[in-house]
Design brief:
It contains 10 helices and 15 strands. With 316 residues, it is of the alpha+beta class. The chain is globular. The chain binds adenosine-5'-diphosphate and magnesium ion (MG). Adenosine-5'-diphosphate (ADP) binds next to strand 8, strand 10, strand 14 and strand 15.
């Protein structure tokens, strides 16, 4: 498992997954953080090294548990790419994380696959003041950073003038998406978890304070609804397939009582403790990748490799 740098603690669902993988794979499983490696090329070969100076083989399977929105292109993304190019099977593949990292990239793919998404506009280097003028969407708009996550900075803009006035601060270092407001879904969405093409959990998330965004990370409420919205579950499976993900959380917006549009697809989803079907499904997914990997015949003791590398850290 690859998780964020120290000292950031593992998310609850990531810890649950790590515990389960540790139980199944014992010393073959280990959690690494992104700040524990150097990597590059030596004598024409791709190499991976711990900070303790130990050369590491590429793991057979790497379960990535850092949300792509918090990855830096030239750091974490490059490390993921390196692992993949060394032969590791990444869950999810780096290309899929990249699609999920940018809300416009994924909307491009979903729209090209013929799947329903809200009308959305973004821009390259145009000034936000000009973009607001040119957008041509009915007000209000949902405004969100294209690489945002956990409902941070998602808001409803009811007044273009206000948005124009805020533009110098809002758009300074962040690309924004301006999106059609799906009013029936205000403060409410449907999260569907998909693993290897199967729906393994679904829940309706509701914001507690009437806010637009209904992310659990904001402390919002989730109630299980697996099987209640078959049409939405089928749509989630198609979205995940279009983006090439093995493990995904799809956020769907209620466009009407029985009609959904895709809000976004997450490549590192979390889940509630009560959703006991998710971890076994991910274990199955990992197991299938391991069986398919050439190193299945010659498993590595990842934990002892890890122990040999902690010397640098303990010596400071
Ligand atoms: N176009 C929209 N119309 C209505 N609600 C929306 C819209 N876009 C997002 N939301 C709400 O805001 C939440 C967060 O938006 P999302 O695009 O998923 O960003 P994040 O990556 O921060 O989770 C969604 O789960 C949903 O509740
Ligand atoms: Mg979301």
């Amino acid at each position: 498992m690859l998780a964020r740098e120290h000292p950031i603690s593992l998310r609850r669902s990531t810890q649950e997954l790590a515990d389960a993988l540790g139980q199944v794979y014992g010393s073959r499983f280990v959690v690494w953080r992104t700040d524990e490696f150097v990597f590059g090329v030596r004598a024409g070969e791709l190499v991976l090294r711990s900070l303790g100076g130990v050369d590491l083989p590429a793991p057979a399977v790497v379960l990535v548990r850092q949300v792509p929105g918090s990855m830096n292109y030239d750091r974490e993304v490059t490390l993921l790419r390196h692992l993949e190019r060394m032969g590791a099977a990444l869950l999810n593949p780096v290309e899929a994380h990249l699609l999920c990292r940018n809300k416009i990239w994924q909307l491009q793919e979903l729209a090209l696959a013929g799947l329903p998404v809200p009308d959305t506009l973004s821009y390259a280097t145009a000034p936000l003041e000009g973009v607001v003028h040119a957008v041509g969407l009915d007000m209000p708009w949902v405004v969100k950073p294209v690489t945002g996550y956990q409902g941070r900075s998602v808001f409803l803009a009811r007044d273009p003038r206000l948005l124009r006035e805020m533009a110098p601060t809002l758009g300074a270092n962040t690309s924004l998406a301006l999106q059609q407001y799906v009013a029936p879904s205000h403060g409410r969405d449907l999260r569907v978890l998909v693993v290897d093409g199967e729906v393994v959990a679904a829940y309706v998330r509701t914001s507690r304070d009437g806010a637009l965004a209904s992310n659990i990370a904001r402390g919002d409420v989730g109630s299980p609804c697996l099987g209640d919205y078959p049409q939405a579950e089928s749509l989630a499976v198609l979205a995940v397939r279009a983006l090439g993900l093995a493990i995904a959380g799809v956020d769907l917006l209620f466009a009407s009582a029985d009609c959904f549009v895709i809000c976004e697809v997450n490549s590192v989803p979390g889940w509630r403790p009560a959703m006991t079907s998710v971890v076994p499904a991910i274990l199955g997914c990992v197991s299938r990748r391991l069986v398919a990997h050439p190193c299945a015949l010659d498993p590595v003791d990842a934990r002892s490799t890890r122990r040999a590398t902690t010397r640098w850290q303990s010596n400071g």
